[in-house]
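For homework, think about our next protein:
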Amino acid sequence: MGKYFGTDGFRGEANVDLTVEHAYEVGRFLGWYYGQKNPSGRCRVVIGKDTRRSSYMFEYSLVAGLTASGADAFLLHVTTTPSVSYVVRSEGFDCGIMISASHNPFYDNGIKVINGNGEKLEESVITEIEDYLDKKTGPLPLALRENIGRTTDFAAGRNRYIGYLISIATRSFKNMKVALDCANGSASAIAKNVFDALGAETHVINMEPNGLNINTNCGSTHIENLQKFVVETGCDVGFAYDGDADRCLAVDAKGNLVDGDVIMYICGKYMKEQGMLPHNTVVTTIMSNFGLYKAFDREGIRYEKTAVGDKYVYENMAANGHGLGGEQSGHIIFSKHATTGDGILTSLKVMEVILEKKQPLEKLASEVEIYPQVLKNVRVKDKKAAQDDEAVQAEVKKCADRLGDDGRILLRQSGTEPVVRVMAEAPTKELCESCVDEIIEVMKERGHVIA
């Protein structure tokens, strides 16, 4: 990760960590960079945004930078991150930009850059952007006269994405009562249209964004609201999205949470049965629940593990030709249809399994036994030294031996904080707590922990 860009774009508090000057400079660089690569000398960039108050501010700053470098900017307005990815690759844009801080609170924002293939931007280009932001490279030329870029309203692109989602569904949703939690975010502009068009009786909560209420006690980060709503309204199933709708969590008719791990199992097993699971493999991250792997083993489904982040999941999928991957948090990637996590697409794929197998979500999800998990963040003086300490590793091995085949221990350094995350999964929460606390105690004894 770089100084400004992490695994999911340039993110921080608006006008504190991420400023309009940053956005303008990013626009200037992207307009110049892709203009150099386009034979015409002029590039086309599509921009989407979520519903945060600051998204409009950053949109105008990016447009100013792009057009000043001679690029043409096409505005999707409020839309989802996966829709920007879809429009880039289907409409031949040089790149795309999504203005969003995903599941973060409203006062944060971010700039996600998507390359011409609809994928997250290459690290090599991110490095060049960061060098430009840090004034390590010279000034860029300004476009003059007729070479100055133009801005075009491109809401039609969002409508084409809606049509694309509708075309993916294999059956009508008629007689299905579906609840959607749009998190007062990007899904508010799209999700209900899709489910209504497919014939569902759609009940929606949190789709009245005001710029300040995105992700506030709603959406996939506060699933308890949808759980209560599904039970109270007698819905067959519910889906919750995050601010930019690249995540999806589900709720069954009894109000039980069905997280990203269980969604991957449900869809992976179905795809295998249909002969549509390439290499019989699902790509997960190291944070997926131990119970998911036990269920995959039982069904004879192979799996691979990547570092945390849907970026790494997709890189593995693209390199190895896998068709399904994702994270416990609900970033699910169906590579036949998308190059990024897509919450609405994920909900359509879950609906497909429910309808094709004629089984309620509760029954489909019951095949996975989610193991209790305890995760504690330990602030340390030196992350690598704390994690690699021989005494700490000896305690990790001791706990792992105690768990055997019925659990696991994981130590992971935070990418943004002076923190080592200690996680245990086991048949009981008490056993998880015991293992985690024993490891942390050794870290304290060895002088790694910040008091």
Q: What stands out?
A: The mean pLDDT is 95. The longest strand covers residues 72-78.
